[in-house]
Design goal:
The longest helix is centred in the middle third of the chain and has 28 residues. The protein is 33% helix and 14% strand. About 18% of the residues have low confidence. By secondary structure, it is an alpha/beta fold.
């Protein structure tokens, strides 16, 4: 099984934002890619967010982004180290507590969920970094030390942007830190294609359509990638795998570090009955009152066992057919009784449609409305910290038994998990192709600018079509960001 390690997450508030600004900007500029996650004050009408029409769905997301706010922003900067072993990344993670200076709606269920998972609203209102939404109110919005200027630095860095189930995240980022959201979806995607020329990558799309995992909620995908990565590392074959290094922060900066423990991937008990709903979607309507197991490691263990059993069964059936031997295969194990069949994907059998699991509105956008994963209701050159690194082999002990803490539910750590999934998926890409600049192609080309759409078998393509134009606000912003007209 995988080894345990600790992820240092820098806690950023209004009191230390200016102090940490140089390190954050350098981390973004020198990164290979940036993973982002948000915690939100609410999403509004859940039913409309699953509208059959994507245009109607986008309008509902726009309404939510305009009337709600971002409470916390997670930024994980992954820098590939060229002088280290292949696929070694220096990782810096920041968790920014924000406070919108305008009126916004905050939903009771969002408050309940966030408080249950340790979000401190007193801390937010006392020390959150202030910001305003919508269009710029002056030229200073792209300069100085504030959140909107930090988002501008992210755009100027021209790095790949990585999210998990990211349509809502990117819409909120646009509305809160960039400009007023355009009314049409085609205009929105046209703007995004110019804002992030290095591409937008959605790890939920990668998990379902590239990696073909049995489930795709964030905690499951992260732990599954972590487990498969450790297997690749231990394999006698020369398979590629991910190494992580973290800065050890010294001096004043060490006061802002929140160490997040990543326990070893070993189930508490392989004989415990798991919760079917949590197994499939990463949430359960009963929450902490559920008597069944919400142990993600156990869920992954049972999924892997089920796939292994199916492979053995197919192998025996092929042998039986070839040798024309009648054999009783009643002793073969099938899928676990508590696992939903339509969620079991097998690359050898082809991709199955997993949209059936989203028929219930309460299952909406598994990472956006309920317990389990990143619920939206919910660098090198570090001048402030030493460049010493700590490998992922740092051993720690202890594992929480509290279901509410099965996922960390912090924007910073969720951004780290999102980045890890993407880094692992990159190890599966053959470095045979080169991009336009002559560099090696290390990002998954099949997921470039494809954002996952809940309940849909095809993604949202982030492109500028011949039938769409960029928004006026975006063109004005681009002139400020790049210093020239688009």
């Amino acid at each position: 099984m995988t080894s345990s390690f600790v992820v240092p997450v820098i806690d950023v508030q209004n009191s230390n934002f200016k102090e940490l600004w140089p390190a954050m900007v350098v981390a973004i500029k020198t990164s290979s890619f940036v993973a982002v996650d948000t915690e939100l004050s609410g999403l509004g009408n859940r039913t409309s967010l699953l509208a059959e029409s994507i245009e109607d769905r986008y309008k509902s997301i726009c309404h939510a982004a305009r009337s709600r706010s971002i409470l916390s922003l997670g930024i994980a900067c992954y820098k590939m180290l060229s002088n280290e072993a292949a696929d070694t990344y220096l990782v810096q993670v920041y968790n920014l507590t924000l406070l919108c200076s305008e009126e916004y709606i905050i939903e009771p269920q969002s408050v309940q969920f966030l408080v249950q998972h340790g979000f401190d609203f007193n801390k937010q209102y006392a020390g959150g970094i202030p910001y305003h939404k919508g269009n710029d109110k002056g030229g200073s919005d792209n300069q100085g030390v504030h959140i909107r200027a930090l988002f501008t630095e992210l755009l100027r860095a021209r790095k790949p942007l990585v999210l998990h189930n990211g349509l809502i995240d990117i819409a909120f980022l646009y509305q809160n830190f960039y400009a007023h959201l355009p009314d049409r979806l085609a205009t929105f995607t046209a703007d995004l294609s110019e804002m992030f020329p290095a591409g937008i990558f959605d790890t939920k799309y990668v998990t379902e359509f590239d990696l073909r995992f049995s489930a795709s909620y964030l905690e499951y995908a992260y732990k599954k990638c972590k487990l498969d990565n450790s297997r690749n590392e231990a394999s006698v074959e020369t398979g590629r795998h991910v190494y992580l290094e973290f800065c050890q922060y010294a001096g004043a900066m060490s006061r802002y570090v929140d160490h997040r423990i990543c326990p070893a991937g070993a189930p508490n008990s392989v004989n415990t009955e798991i919760c079917q709903s949590f197994s499939a979607f990463g949430w359960c309507s009963k929450g902490t009152k559920c008597r069944l197991s919400h142990d993600t490691d156990l869920i992954i263990f049972q999924d892997d066992k089920s796939k292994d059993d199916k492979r053995k069964k197919r192998k025996r059936q092929k042998k039986k057919k070839k040798e024309e031997i009648v054999d009783d295969d009643s002793n073969l194990d099938g899928a676990p009784q508590n696992k939903m069949p339509y969620l079991e994907l097998n690359p050898e059998e082809g991709h199955q449609d997993v949209t059936a699991g989203f028929l219930e509105i309460t299952n909406l956008m598994d990472s956006n409305t309920h317990e389990g994963e990143n619920v939206k209701t919910n660098s090198e050159g570090n001048e402030l910290g030493e460049h010493n690194t700590e490998s992922t082999n740092t051993e720690v002990t202890g594992k929480s038994e509290n279901k509410a803490e099965s996922g960390t539910h912090r924007a910073g750590f969720d951004a780290f998990m999102t980045g890890y999934i993407f880094a692992y998926s990159c190890t599966l890409v053959k470095k045979e192709e080169v991009n336009a600049s002559g560099e090696e192609q290390i990002w998954p080309p099949t997921s470039f600018n494809k954002v996952y759409l809940s309940g849909k078998s095809t993604p949202l393509n982030i492109v500028k079509s011949t039938f769409s134009k960029s928004s006026k606000a975006h063109m004005q912003k681009m002139e400020m960001v790049w210093g020239k007209k688009k």
